[in-house]
Amino acid sequence: MSFWLSGIGVSRGIAIGRVQKLHGGDLEIPEYTLGAHEVGHEITRFYGAQQRAKEQLHDIRDQIPGGAPAEIAAFIDTHLLMLDDRSLTDAVATMIRSHNINAEAALRRQRDALVAAFEQMDDAYLRSRKDDVQHVAARILRILMKQERSLPAGSAAVAAEPNVIVADDITPADIILLAQQGVAAFITEYGGPLSHTAILARSYSIPAIVGLHGARRLLRDGETIIVDGDLGHALADPDAQALAFFRDKRSGQLAQRAALSGLRHKPAISRDGIKIRLLANIELSEDAAHAAELGAEGVGLYRTEFLYMNRQGLPSEDEQYEAYARVAAAVKGPITIRTLDLGADKQVDSGSRQGPTPNNPALGLRAIRLCLKEPELFRTQVRALLRASAHGDVHIMLPMISSTQEFRQAQQFIEATRQQLIAEGHRFEREIPVGAMIEVPAAALAAPWLARYASFFSIGTNDLIQYTLAIDRVDDEVNYLYDPLHPAVLQLIRMTIEAGDNAKIPVAMCGEMAGDPRYTRLLLGLGLTEFSMHPASVLEVKRIIMESDIGALREEVGRLLISGDAHAAEALVGA
Fold first, then answer.
1. Choosing from 79, 371, 391, 510, which is the catalytic residue?
2. Taking the mean position of all CA atoms in its chain, how far away is CA 318?
3. Measured over all CA atoms, what is the biggest interatomic distance in the chain, rounded to whole angstroms?
4. What sign does the CA torsion over 9, 12, 18, 22 have?
């Protein structure tokens, strides 16, 4: 009998295949006391498992096909770095020695401590990186316990219907291997839009649904299933009519995707002649070339937090300068670099934060607040950013701005640092745009005043939506409330765009909403003229822009905002 399952669609497309459960969820980790003479051997056993895990990941990295997006290899590199991180490895050896316990128990304790630290981080993307810790620890644990989980056989890809992988969670390494086997789709019980499964599935253009609780219990190995990654629905054991409908829908999507390649070098101009600027969100310099190939005109968001992670000390000015200069030189067009967006719960001084852990880190000392409180931390990054401007069209974006006073303080700090570099004789661009990231409701409400000082705005919808609606978008218990179409969210976006228009400064959007084709018409109607997104979304968004009459959309959205009609917003998105 057919039945529907619903989760969170995180990678678009229709897939039809047979269920293949990926077994090996939670491990039953033993704990026992060692004799004094056994400790040395146990430490050796742990380091042997660590080395075996590194060998496995190197083998998987070597299998990544040439031309694949850089972020695919980056996930494996992150895990390799963690395998060499003392906080995961030497700390386990120390625990074995000091507590006389077995390697599995020591690793479990250290894993739990590190996961707890990540869970206290305020930035949702970084908080979701606790997955990395769990995946790396699980790989070592399975080696120690001789329970390495097996993946479906590669021959499944040539069967009459490919596999739809159903699992509690999937590691980046598993996704890479499964993608090469030609799997049709991924379904996981846990995770959100920022999970590994979501990011890598989008990179591979494989439909995916996450947060589908109970999927392994409800689905049977081998049964036919339809996955709709657009809507987050799965239909198990479909009848002939449903199969025919979704096969036709999938054929139409594939034909449309093939046609998109012809738009790579065409400008994003609407039917009524309005030019829209399409930019990319990137994390590595290698991503810049891939984004340009797909038609991006520059970079609207380059995250800098990765320079600060998986290391004992802080990155030096020269190290940061080299990283920023490399990516600035690689980008054809402007590159907007966001200053450090970490919280005080993250080690920023090569040591642990003093004092109690904040009860609500998302509302605590983070991002620009932290940078202004730790001037040496901020000065090092600003000096590197200013110096890197000699190599490209660098723009500086300040995150978590909530008031004009805060922005002005940061602006004055940047100016003082600029004067220092001039006095020292450094070569750099003297007039660098400094903008505000609008991700706090207070910033959107104060946008008319912020626009007097900022060179540009960029709307970070991920945080703006969660702060406005008071929900954590990576919390499986409440992320169903994450609603980009909520009238309050739409009003805040419109207010920000209007403030930018009135002040004649550019307004971009760099949150997930900008790269989701379902919202393109709505955003055009709200007046948005700069979109920044994952490179894989550029061509689909461009197609919708080229097919749209923006003048008509602005009239329609204007009526929608006056009425506050949520159903009208949903109808526009579904148009």
1. 510
2. 27
3. 80
4. negative
Would residue 267 count as lying in a domain? Answer: no
Based on the domain organization, do 196 and 281 belong to the same domain? Answer: no
In a domain, 104, yes or no: yes
Is 31 a member of any domain?
no
CATH number of domain containing 235: 3.50.30.10
**Same domain? 17 vs 166:** yes
CA 352 to chain centre: 26
Residue that is last in its domain, among 200, 227, 260: 260
Are 176 and 77 within one domain?
Answer: no
93 and 223 share a domain?
Answer: no
Length of the chain: 575
CATH number at residue 104: 1.10.274.10
DSSP codes joined into one string, 285-311: THHHHHHHHTT--SEEEE--GGGGSSS
Residues 398 and 465 in one domain: yes
Apex CA 85: angle with CA 197 and CA 145, to 5°?
A: 70
Domain boundary among 260, 291, 319: 260
Q: Which two tokens stand for residue 232?
A: 């987050």
Q: Active-site residue among 196, 290, 395, 534?
A: 196
Whether residue 29 lies inside any domain: the answer is no
**525-561 as b/e: b if 16+ CB within 10 A:** bbbbbbbbbbbbbbbbbbbbbeebbbeebeebbeebb
**Distance (Å, whole) CA 548 – CA 533:** 19
User: What's the domain range around 44?
Assistant: 36-144
CA distance readout (Å), 73 to 11, 57, 331, 391: 19, 10, 20, 26
Are 277 and 227 in a shared domain? no
Q: How many domains does the chain have?
A: 3
Q: Tens place of pLDDT for every residue, the chain, 575 residues?
A: 788 999 989 888 999 999 999 875 567 899 999 999 999 999 999 999 999 999 999 998 888 876 666 667 778 888 898 898 888 889 999 999 999 999 999 999 999 988 888 777 666 666 667 888 888 998 999 999 988 766 665 544 444 579 999 998 888 888 888 888 889 999 999 887 777 778 888 878 899 999 898 999 999 999 999 999 988 999 999 999 999 999 999 999 888 888 888 898 899 999 999 999 999 998 777 778 888 888 899 999 998 887 876 666 788 999 999 999 999 998 989 999 999 987 644 444 333 444 445 555 567 787 899 999 999 999 999 999 999 999 999 999 999 999 999 999 999 999 999 999 999 999 999 899 999 999 999 999 999 999 999 999 999 998 999 899 988 766 667 767 778 999 999 999 999 999 999 999 999 999 889 998 989 999 999 999 999 998 888 999 999 999 999 999 999 999 988 887 777 777 777 65
Catalytic: 196? yes
Examine the domain organization and report whether 161 and 249 are in the same domain: yes
Both 227 and 116 in a single domain? Answer: no
